[in-house]
Amino acid sequence: MTTSHYIAGRWVEGQGSDCISVNDPALGQPFAELMAASVAQVDQAVTAARGALPAWKNTSASERAAYLRGFAEQLGQRREALITLQMRNNGKPRHEAEIDLDDAIATFGYYAELAEQLPSKNRDVPLAAPGFSARTRLEPVGVVGLIVPWNFPLVTSAWKLAPALAAGCTVVLKPSEVTPLIEQAYGQIADALGLPAGVLNIVNGKAETGAALSNHNGLDKLSFTGSNSVGSQVMRSASAQCRPVTLELGGKSAIVVFDDCDVGQAVEWIVAGITWNAGQMCSATSRLLVQDGIADALLPRLQAALEQLRVGNPLTEEVEMGPLTSQAQWLKVAGYFATAREEGLQCLAGGKALDRDGWFVSPTLYADVPKDSRLWTEEIFGPVLCARRFATEEQAIAEVNDSRFGLVATVCSADLERAERVADALEVGHVWINSVQAVFVETSWGGTKGSGIGRELGPWGLSAYQSVKHVTRCLG
């Protein structure tokens, strides 16, 4: 796969120094290789996007909406191939890969509708002062760099690409080097639809490629999803140019279970929140706060549910959880298992790598974890759940908010008035009540504190790629 970069409407060979090995995590073996883009090719991609911007931003909203609907339709036509690739390169069980694809399709469809609802370029603004008129315009922010992660590659790129195109921006997309193949579908679809050359560009590579894009002075905005350590580097690059940035970063999210909750239902919500995508989610609810009155009944049921979870190769087995996506992540999670042993944590389930080919770990539960434990405070990005007990509503709220992150939380209670009250008190960007982590394109996505800057999805996702211009005229 040498022609792995889509620049100015053409597929080109990588000219960088890095060779990217694409792995099947269920086997721990590579199945494809590609050469990274060079710094010069990143520059070519940004130049192509800059050249395509004047014509693209002046297309009608209905034209852009038609292209977005085309992306949605073409994704559906590639359904089985994309699902299989998600299973093979990410290790996702089939039902998860199917939901990811449906999410991407829905995102393009939603922003097609939003594009058609965009107001006319000019809107009059009433002024209190006589003798002047004013109007406002919503304009595309310009050329945007999109850097997406490996845990939800097809989805996260749709969350960025669809609103950027809807707003009239042109794009340079950099996929993760761990999962570089599935975003190739967007370039193939651009070809099939006749998207103007340069509107969408895709460059693959490792840190050198990402840095070249982040530091490029031809960008008007950066949007990044990934780790806090890399996000801080992206933010520094943006600050050097004084340009806007959207950052969707890490989390150490909590799920709160009150003692009026049905035990079986609570176990279902808890397991989904920590084992979906093998816990490789910034939104994983990896801190469990369970009220004293239900803890003794819930923890044994939860332990049994995690031990009975079917873990394996999604391409050959009926599984509920697949492997970790990369060897690096497998080693990181194994390191936290070692830390837990060093700290003397009480392990009720798992706590080890599985003795089989591939990068598998067991779904894990630690009980009565101290608040100063590294496992309680740090993002692990694996199926590792830490539990603590609480007595009162006020204590639960305080413990949820006692974190440097603030992405999401889940509240489980039969008392809906209390659940709503607690949701309002939590310092996070998204709260679920009595639910799995259902994410809808109409809602916002993003966090507070160290979990990032800005919002994706919903109308907020579109406004992130728009700038506001006011024109004031003297009538005298």
In short, what is this structure?
The protein has 476 residues and is of the alpha/beta class. 41% of the residues lie in helices and 21% in strands.
Task: Describe the model.
The chain is an alpha/beta fold and 476 residues long. 41% of the residues lie in helices and 21% in strands. It is built from 15 helices and 22 strands. α8 links the parallel β10 and β11 (245-248). The longest helix has 23 residues, at 94-116.
Draw up the topology in text:
Layout: E1 5-7, E2 10-12, E3 19-24, E4 29-35, H1 39-57, H2 61-77, H3 79-90, H4 94-116, E5 123-124, E6 132-140, E7 143-147, H5 153-167, E8 170-174, H6 184-193, E9 200-202, H7 207-214, E10 221-225, H8 228-241, E11 245-248, E12 254-257, H9 263-275, E13 287-291, H10 292-308, H11 327-343, E14 346-349, E15 364-367, H12 374-377, E16 384-390, H13 393-401, E17 405-406, E18 408-412, H14 416-425, E19 430-433, E20 448-449, E21 452-453, H15 458-463, E22 466-474
Parallel strand pairs: 7-8, 7-10, 8-9, 10-11, 12-13, 12-18, 13-16, 15-16, 18-19
Antiparallel strand pairs: 1-2, 3-4, 5-6, 6-22, 11-21, 14-15, 17-20
